[in-house]
Amino acid sequence: MTPTLISERAPAVAAPPADPRRRPRLADLGTPLLYAASLSTALVLAGLLIALVGQSPWDAASAMYDGSLADGAAIGQSIDQAAPLLLVAIGSVIAARAGIFNIGQEGQLLVGASVGAAIALFTPGPGPLVLILALLGAAVGGALWAAIAALLFYWRGVAVVISTLLLIFVANQAVSYAVNSPSLLREKAVAGQVTTSQTDMLAESVWLPRIGEYPDFNIGAGIFIALVLAVGTSVVLVRSRLGFRVRMLGLNPKAAHRAGVGAVLIGGGALLASGAFAGLAGGVMLTGSGHRMQDGFADNVGFDGLLVALVARDKPMLAVPVALFFGALRAGGGFLSATGVPRYIVAVVTALLVLATVFPAAYAEVRRRRTAGA
Amino acid sequence: MRPSPQASDTAVTTPDPRPRAGDDQPTAPSVLSAPIVQLLGIGKRFGAVRACEDVSLRVQAGEIHGLLGENGAGKSTLMKILLGLVVPDTGRILLRGEPATITDPSAAAAHGISMVHQHFSLVDRLSVWENVVLGDRGRVDRDRARTLVREVGRRYGLEVDPDACVEDLSTGQRQRVEIVKCLRRDPGVLILDEPTSVLTLEESRELFTVLRRVVADEGKAVILISHKLDEIVHATDRVTIMRQGRVVARRATADTDVRSLAREMVGRELSKWTAASAVGALDALIEPGTGEPTGGTALLDVREPAAAPAPDPRPPAGEVRLRISDAHASTTDRRPLLRGLTLEVRAGEILGLAGVEGNGQAALGDLLSSLLPLSAGRVEVCGAPVVAGRPGAMHAAGVGIVPEDRHVSGCVLDMSVAENLVLADLSSVTSKGLLSRRRMAARARQLIEEFEIATPSPDTPMRQLSGGNQQKVVLARELAAQPKVLVAAQPTRGLDIGAIEYMTERLHAAARSGIAVLLLSTELGEILTLSHRVAVIHRGAVVGEMDRADVDTERLGLLMGGQAA
Fold first, then answer.
1. The total number of structural domains that make up chain A
2. Do B455 and A11 touch (CB under 8 A)?
3. Residue B165 sits in which domain range?
4. For position B277, what pLDDT does the model report?
5. Which residue blocks in A192-315 are alpha helix, DSSP H?
6. What ipTM was assigned to the predicted interfaces of this complex?
7. A47 falls within a domain
8. How confident is the model at residue A172 (pLDDT cuts 50, 70, 90)?
9. What is the pLDDT of residue B268?
10. Partners of residue B49 in chain A, C-beta under 8 Å
11. Cβ neighbours around B400 below 10 Å, total
12. Is A370 on the interface with B (CB under 8 A)?
């Protein structure tokens, strides 16, 4: 750049491996090809699988399309699916940037949603206020669930990956117990009706507002919450002092410690924030689409959101398109299973497509390490 | 002429290289006709950087061949080419007269070329014999491996306990394990990359004795990569000098001296103190007055003493800035690191803390980086106690540090130069919680200029800077915070002469401006060049202290070895 910056007797700066001119050209050519190749491989495999269970791959493909992109309603469906994924992903990004690998979003989401449901069901008051309280409560619930892992790590050194993962199972059982116990969240008995293990339907006044009417384009407000938070998180991480400290901690904990960044405060805070985002995702799912808690409520959104963060390489803004893609996959997959393709095949097909999107980045990383190591 | 009296009594018995061709070396005549390694016209470019250009190197069996040059002169690239880690653009390799293509390290190993790298590749938790056979195929035969380690050890004087756990070994012993790893494969060519940068004087001497045995007993060849002139002069038979990717001179070591080597390596004259420190010519530092016609004093003639920033032998009597009293600390598994360490550093002085590596220097560095809590004792900066181990406490109290391994706690490699320049002083570029890019860039530009940091731009990732420039970034940041105390731990390790000179001047300037400077170093030359006072650390405690003027190496050596003196 500016020649004044380079002192005159300085030797060549760049270390040999940094070869800024040739690398990008090669990579630019290779990456789209690699994406095309891995996506078509995934599609061929998916087609074969569907043919194997006796369905037409072509019909399946068009069902995927119909469910996710064909018309306004389908696109709205995809966007609705993307909102909680994006929220979970932002949280994962925050933790990952602080050097903490939280993989328990599924559990934090469940706990958050349950807290949100309890508030929404049992708090008297005007609808919008209760809605806001429920969403905040969901975030706090998720954060508290993550706080258990933070406590175990900073107090006893239990690895966060393990504790957050195992806490998912605890959360599953706890929530299942809550929705099965009449004294807790199980729906109230109505004379002449059998209760099942789910909560009451939330009052319509505490549902998230929707824009548009079926069968036209219609979406819930969740995506706007998620987008605002994605932008906010991006700004905080890149531009603020707090974000700088979080990144410093993630990149070099010792240098951060010396510079006055407390791992417990900043790192623990990042883990709690990550849990809060997962909990909020649960709250958005509850008030935005399901309107009641039941078994299987989380439906892998926590894990898929984690994948979104991985594919987006921990960049909040990149997570937006990735979450939309994953949302479309989920919407299309849901539609596909309605056409008679077995659910497990649908799961395998979506997993193949996810793998196809993750593979090129992973492959590039492996190549980079190989060449750097030589 | 002997280059220095050290050569005769301490380092190695430098054999006269010329009778080598005679009949007392039965293998010599046949080997002489075809050099064991011959590189012809080697060229290698990395993008715009020319690492090697038309380099030719000829190494005979039975000799220790020095490869001398500053960092970045192309020594390492040349050796990587010989090891098959880098493919040359041009040139040929001949091994024992036969053309050879070396495409990867295993091919190099098959040709009998093996290298001891500067950074060890040992598994700390495994024992010595396990490390030695690591990577072998087939059944693990413990007894055979242990016998092998002992046998190789006996043959070359590399005694090391095969059952010891590597993490319990000293740096010198670890290097022995690395050498045993290489020698047990009976290589024809043994390459050592800056082997003494982690060793004490004593260990270095032992190493050279070992190398002498290797080439004498076996008719092997050793290539010794170094930028230290003294050890090249003491340990090698012939030397090839590289500068900026080219061979600038080839010499028989006996026909040259430290002074001319230095000139050829750097391409210019050096101030005596830097040169003496950089090349480890201790005698020049200890007895500047004696008129012995040695290499060391020859070096003194290079420039008038007035030109060099020689430390004032009388320590200035400033107020005590840093006081550590009776500090005790241990690792999490209860191994003691500091055992009652006590020291004081005054404003305006440089206190050099000498000692053999692994005696608590790293722990002291960690303590002053807030990375190590104390189990007993206290640290005071300017009279006020500082809580050890609390994040940022030392920095807030005014302790700046250039740490031993800058990559661990000194900088964040994946952040930009500008970001690294503000790591701990974010408040100076923050308003309302948001960082000001403009102020950060302005500050970076100012420091880059002031400290002569060579970087393409302030936004360049730290990772892409050379070691010397990364060190400058760390130093610039610490000094910009206007510290009360500056700690420099092994500040010149791995740097070339230019960078060492720079560091030396900066530390002097810091002391002159009233900062209390604590220098931790295992290089006695560096301590003696820079310090006003010298203290010795042994097993986690300061065991002796003296003014620079009262230093005698005998006593220092005894103290460093743990004997009361």
1. 1
2. no
3. 125-185
4. 52
5. 222-239, 241-251, 253-258, 268-285, 301-311
6. 0.80
7. no
8. very high
9. 62
10. 12, 14, 16
11. 25
12. no
